């Protein structure tokens, strides 16, 4: 049986955090959030990890990861750069950043031929979520995709706004649409809102299901998204800050009737770090999990 692959999106520059948070230590012995993710993936049965990074910190990242996990699971490193796009397309010459999360997955197309999951490097998803993903990717015989969804109230930061893909599903628990919402925050009156394009505010309930960029895909993803990416670059490639998001790509596939996307349940709790002020909270939660026996005090 082919083991699924885990793609870790680790190319973010951490502008709101102030440094490369994917390399920052949060565990009692300096473990990164990625370390816990890889540990959980190995325990769940994944066979390979593909890290999406930037060229300028590739060697530093490899130097950190190889000694810890190189003898436990296959590790592959792929760089996401601005010019890593389909040939023959012109983009704005002054643009500096790559093209977002869907682009980050797309650059792994030559390294991934098996069912795969996608996660953010700076998000902690919990051991059960990886087991749910591994079971789905090894047992599901359709070409469906899947998303692991979390309650919005459990994904907010006390220290600034966040971006979330709001999920809508039907009675069969198929995703009907996912809408990328930016600058979400709980305001002074206790209500969660985000700004609309016209400047007004849109309310979201605490129990809104959101994607934390934890997805299950099949190899067909690359063909589907390649055509979408070409269309995106042709329409928005001359913009300086446009981004090609995974939720937007999935939403189009749903609307086109190309496939179904299952919404998966998990008992895991999510937490992440967006701002420096989030770090003590993450450290406290990891210590609690270690004290409760979920993880050894030393991962490696």
CATH superfamily descriptor: Spore Coat Polysaccharide Biosynthesis Protein SpsA, Chain A
| Helical content band | 25-40%
Low-confidence segments, ≥5 residues, pLDDT <50? 15-19
Radius of gyration: 19 Å
For the secondary structure, the number of strands is 13
Q: Structural class from helices and strands?
A: alpha/beta
How far is it from the N-terminal to the C-terminal residue, by CA?
Answer: 27 Å
CATH class: Alpha Beta
**Biggest sheet descriptor:** 11 strands, mixed
Which CATH architecture? Alpha-Beta Complex
Report mean pLDDT, rounded to a whole number.
Answer: 90
Per the principal axes of the C-alpha atoms, what is the gross shape? globular
CATH topology (fold) name: Spore Coat Polysaccharide Biosynthesis Protein SpsA, Chain A
Write the layout of secondary structure elements.
Blueprint: E1 5-9, H1 33-44, E2 48-53, H2 58-69, E3 74-79, H3 101-106, E4 116-120, E5 123-124, H4 127-139, E6 145-151, E7 162-169, E8 175-186, E9 192-195, E10 201-204, E11 209-217, H5 220-236, H6 246-255, E12 261-264, E13 271-272, H7 279-291
Parallel strand pairs: 1-2, 1-4, 2-3, 6-12
Antiparallel strand pairs: 4-11, 5-13, 6-11, 7-8, 7-11, 8-9, 9-10
Helix pairs in contact: 1-4
